[in-house]
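Could someone model DLZ with this protein?
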Amino acid sequence: MASRDASPSIVNLPDGSSYTFGIVVAQWNAAITNALLEGAKQTLLQAGVSETNIEVLYVPGSFELPWGARQIMKPGKKDAVICLGCIIQGETKHDDYIATAVAAGIMQLGLMSGVPVIFGVLTTNDEQQAQERAGGTHGNKGSEAAATALQMAVIRTGDTLTKKRIGY
Ligand code: DLZ
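Reply:
Sure, complex below.
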């Protein structure tokens, strides 16, 4: 399949200077998840988010991401939380169980809390596919997750509506 360019959301980043983000990172397949973290941080900083407004929490594996996201949104205001993980298919169905639980947990937490929780979890057949999506030929999905978090922070605070009303 052909590789694709950076998504429009990464090219046209909203101004992030007034927002605060949490990033939760699974340590399974750490080389990949650290690359996703770098991509996410780079994108947030590029959008004007202050380094002090980015809090990072490490959890053991992707299964713990929803719990980590709940934990990181507790102490103070977060405009969005980004979950980063890498689930690689093995000989058993563990990847299916983990991925399904994590996706459901992240969705549920976002709906219950009102804080956008972004699914930045790779679910790949092998390590090569993961590398291609962590800064390789398919871009960096951590960066894309951060761009989504920025968009959701803007939507959540109603800034988009405000801009439309005043004629941007
Ligand atoms: C146990 C496990 C396995 C086999 N594979 C992965 C994986 O590919 N990616 C990942 O993020 N985590 C994996 N884990 C760990 C689980 O997410 C979790 O940390 C443990 O089951 C403990 O709850």
